[in-house]
Write a structure and sequence with these properties.
The protein is an alpha/beta fold. The chain is about 35% helix and about 25% strand.
């Protein structure tokens, strides 16, 4: 700030010495000029009483980061993260959440959330494509979700190892985020990506990547925050849940406690009169895994999964990255039609030519049909 001249500084000191003495605006102008009044106005403005809550109508896109939503709602990012946690959604400040979750938390904060009506090139393209022939059965796509340390990875590894044991030497040379397993109960595609990724980005435009969710819950730990988060995502996607109660080989295992806790989240066991299958397993030892695979197969039969196998390929990107020697690559699951090497595809708002298709073993394939996970290069 500009320094006052010496005489005026002396006058200013005299003002604050006389704490209880009041000066008129005219006297203040003479003593301090306009500078004092400006400071007084700023001070008064800073301590004005907050205005009452203003309810807003917030337009929500298909996916949005927590930070972007906080800006739209005019709230602190930390407060929004806390509110999401209270709702059972674990999301960081820079993480993406889906439209349903964003609308729900917007309404929880007292505002009106509505889905934005965007014209998407992908939607127009879908309208132009006609599939010939009849729909045929397809393999179920399963996401295995659960709280950290409850055994999700151990279960996936056990199923994967069982598959590799039946293959030629070499096994899986490249992890692509999903794999197909030929089990005793039939062929099943497993998505091996973080639960959040499987139910946020990939749920854009209402397209679910998953047919069935296997919820892994530790028998010695029960319902935890990420368990609840997975339940909320599965419900929002309207996907059936099979509960795999893991670590049944431990002394502290309490199956009835797990059933009771999950019943409070509307996952009522079949033997309690509900519709949810609860399968006791030990992913470490492999106990009950065959029963789980059979339960998945049974659920898939009820769903009667069908799609078109011929025609232009349509699918969902599960993951993408930059790989040395390959450039931009993406793991996709084909949902309809057939993808072929050399096809021109639309990914987001970009059109690219498929240079190669790799299966879960890292081997090149010429085409990929429904429910088959492949790695696309050439993006």
């Amino acid at each position: 700030p500009n320094q006052l001249s010496s005489p005026k500084r002396d006058l200013k000191k005299s003002i604050f010495k006389k704490e209880k003495q009041e000066y008129s605006k005219k006297e203040l102008r003479e003593l301090e000029g306009e500078e004092y009044l400006k400071k007084e106005q700023i001070s008064q403005h800073a301590f004005e009483k907050p205005t009452e809550f203003l309810k807003k109508q917030i337009e929500i896109p298909e996916t949005i980061t927590v930070s972007a939503l906080a800006q739209k709602l005019a709230v602190k990012g930390g407060d929004l993260v806390k509110k999401l946690m209270d709702m059972g959604v674990m999301a960081t400040f820079n993480q993406t959440i889906d439209q349903d979750t964003a609308i729900l938390v917007t309404e929880e904060l007292g505002h009106i959330g509505e889905a934005s009506k965007e014209v998407v090139v992908e939607d127009k393209l879908k309208e132009m494509v006609n599939y010939e022939g009849e729909e045929a059965s397809r393999v179920p796509v399963v996401s295995v979700l659960g709280h950290v340390d409850h055994g999700k990875t151990t279960l996936l590894d056990f199923i994967r190892k069982a598959k590799v044991a039946d293959e030629e030497e070499g096994g899986i040379t490249q992890r692509i985020g999903a794999y197909q397993s030929n089990t005793s109960s039939g062929v099943i595609t497993f998505i091996d990506t973080p639960g959040h990724a499987a139910f946020t980005e990939v749920r854009a435009r209402g397209a679910n990547s998953t047919d069935i969710v296997v919820l892994v819950v530790a028998a010695d730990d029960g319902l935890q925050p990420q368990t609840e988060e997975a339940i909320n995502h599965a419900k929002a996607a309207e996907v059936p849940i099979i509960v795999a109660v893991n670590k049944m080989d431990k002394e502290e295992a309490d199956l009835e406690k797990v059933k009771n806790e999950l019943s409070s989240k509307e996952l009522v066991p079949e033997d309690w009169g509900g519709k949810t299958q609860f399968i006791p397993i030990s992913a470490l030892k492999g106990d009950g895994v065959e029963d789980l695979l059979e339960a998945i197969s049974l659920e898939a039969e009820v769903l009667d999964l069908k799609t078109y196998h011929k025609g232009p390929g349509f699918g969902i990107v599960l993951d993408s990255s930059i790989e040395k020697g390959q450039g931009a690559v993406a793991t996709v699951i084909v949902q309809k039609g057939t993808l072929k090497t050399g096809d021109i595809i639309l990914v987001g708002d970009q059109t690219k030519k498929i240079r190669s298709l790799l299966n879960e073993n890292g081997k090149k394939v010429k085409e990929a049909g429904p429910s088959l996970p492949v790695l696309i290069s050439g993006l």
